[in-house]
Design brief:
The radius of gyration is 19 Å and the shape is globular. 31% of the residues lie in helices and 33% in strands. The longest helix has 15 residues. The protein is α+β, with helices and mostly antiparallel strands. The mean pLDDT is 94. The protein has nine helices and twelve strands. The protein has two domains: 109 residues, Aminopeptidase, CATH 3.40.630; 137 residues, 3-Layer(aba) Sandwich (Aminopeptidase). The protein starts with a strand and ends with a strand. Keywords: Acyltransferase, Transferase.
Length: 266
């Protein structure tokens, strides 16, 4: 049986996702937030009373993921398509990511782009902190952070900033470095679970590169996460970005797998 899932099913969704906590961090972090859960839609495949697979569409981001048994994933992908959710991206750890993208392709949904990145982990005992002068992000930094995000996604800085872009910026977990009166670099603690935090949006303005600013932001972010009791910080970085890989290795990160981001027409 396949059906849509609701608030009464939330604990079952989380119990399934926690079976592979690292890989399912994005789903866990969003499902554990009441606000994000209410903005999202979930679909589950059951065998008897046992939940075997879940797909999740996060309305705030247009992102779509699926977790659970390999054989049951196609059915929960199809359930989301029948419900006409607007899928803009599939951000998942391999090999489950390819299963979802393949099923979408079978149903006529072909990605515009597919980016394969490295999946990295920093364990508490491997952390090598770096000295830095950074601070927590403030509300007045929001537009500057949008422009840094545009650098990451290779989008024009001259186009007017939209409210949707502003709303996608999370200030709560963001660390920034300032240089010459500008927000020059940033890193953000994104979704988290009981034991892990995902670091996202690690960006340096090209005008201020090679000054150790991103390393400082990341070091401060990791120190904060470990002080809060997390076991490890996770992140993704492009295979061709050797400079970023060197930065993360210096902090103590190690490669543990691959991550796929498939982007679809919005």
């Amino acid at each position: 049986m396949v059906r849509e899932l609701f608030e009464a099913d939330r604990q079952a969704i989380l119990s399934l996702a926690y079976q592979r906590e690292r890989e399912h961090l994005f789903l866990i972090g969003n499902a554990e937030s009441p606000a994000t859960f209410s903005e999202s839609r979930y679909f589950g495949a059951f065998e008897g009373n046992a939940l075997r697979a879940v797909s999740a569409w996060f309305g705030r981001f247009g992102s779509f993921v699926a977790v659970g048994e390999e054989a049951a994933i196609p059915s929960v992908v199809d359930a989301a398509l029948i419900a006409k959710v607007r899928i803009e991206s599939v951000p998942m750890v391999e090999p489950r990511a390819s299963l979802v993208v393949q099923q979408l392709r079978r149903r006529g949904f072909v990605p515009l782009k597919e980016h394969v990145s490295l999946f990295l982990e920093l364990k508490r005992q491997a952390f090598h902190p770096q000295e830095s002068v950074v601070r927590s992000a403030r509300e007045e930094d929001r537009d500057a952070l949008v422009l840094l995000q545009r650098i990451l996604h290779e989008r024009a800085s001259t186009v007017p900033i939209t409210e949707r872009e502003r709303n996608k910026i999370s200030l709560e977990g963001a660390i920034v470095a300032e240089e010459d009166g500008h927000i020059a670099a940033t890193a953000t603690a994104g979704v988290c679970s009981r034991h892990f935090v995902q670091a996202v949006g690690v960006i340096t303005d090209p005008r201020f590169r090679r000054r150790g600013l991103a390393a400082g932001c990341m070091s401060a972010l990791c120190q904060r996460c470990f002080a809060e009791g997390k076991e490890a910080v996770l992140l993704f970085t492009e295979k061709k970005n050797l400079a970023a890989q060197a930065l993360y290795a210096k902090l103590g990160f190690a490669v543990i797998g691959e991550f796929l981001l498939a982007e679809y027409p919005s």
